[in-house]
Structure formats: C-alpha cells, structure tokens
Amino acid sequence: MIEKSAEIEFLARSVEDNGGIYFVPAFSGLFAPHWRSDARGVIVGMTRFINRGHLARAALEATAYQTREVLDAMEADSGVKLKSLKVDGGMVANDLLMQFQADILDVPVVRPVIVETTALGAAYAAGLAIGFWKDFEELKLNWKKDRVWQPSMNQDTRSRLYVGWKKAVDRTLNWVE
Questions:
Q1: Residue 100: what are its φ and ψ, rounded to 5°?
Q2: What is the dihedral sign for C-alpha 48, 49, 54, 58?
Q3: What pTM was estimated for this model as a whole?
Q4: Which of 28, 79, 108, 124 has minimal CB crowding within 10 Å?
C-alpha cells in the first residue's frame, strides 16, 4: 500500500479525516503508559467507505495519540503542564502529522532546523567533554527553530477523536492468553 514513508502524507491528505477508523500499532504489546504485553495491533471502525487514504491518515494519527498518552501520563505524574512540544526525527518532515500533533495535544509543536538530533546530541556531549563548548548555554545558541504548528482543532472535536482512540486501545487488550 505504501512503498516509501514519504508517500504517506500525500495519501493521508487525499481524505478530509480518518473516516472513523483508528489504527493501534500494538504489534508486540502496548508499552508506555499501558504496559500491556497481551495487546495486539488493530484497525477498528472499518466500513465500506474506508479507502487507502483513511488508513494512511489513521496510521499517522496513531503516532500523535500515542504521544498524547505518554505526555498525559507525564503531566499526571509531575503536575507540570506541557506548554509546547519540540520534535525531531524523520517523522517531523510530515506537516500533516505535526499539525495533528499540535491539535490533539492543544499546544504548539516546534520543529528545529536540524531534525536528526540523536547524532547531534552525541556530538554535543563529546564537544562538552573536551571543552569545545564551555557550557549548555553556548550549546543552546546552536538550536534554531524551523517551523511551529499552532493548535487549530476545537475542544469538542479533540475530545471526540481522543475518546475514539481510547476505545480502539481497549479493543487491543487481552488478545494473548
């Protein structure tokens, strides 16, 4: 259905919404914050009107829902409310996903100019260790913002979609005896 990850955004944009389907990628269980090894991946809400675009969109949205679940758990544990989310990695090239992430979290999502920060972080750590940079403040000057997505989804829609996600997650449980 999708040969390259770069194709998914185009396919997902071919539809207005997920068509009422949810994809929960629990291929080897659900991890944080559920910690359920008995869960398995599901696609729920299928009707005869669902097409490849809806499936692509549901797959993208799953990433944002999973991020929300983890951040909600972090907020509950810490008492600290998220004000914005800085993102990195290959998936941040997907503008549709970044907008949906901002919408489902109801906070701005910020993408840096340099999106592959794992190797960069290792280089920064090495540079700090040998004195190339004097401190973290000097390193912070290297970070540059590329783009910010502001939430634009109304609260009723956000709540309805997230309730659907939670219902889909419930369907993944107890598949393994």
A1: -65, -35
A2: negative
A3: 0.91
A4: 79
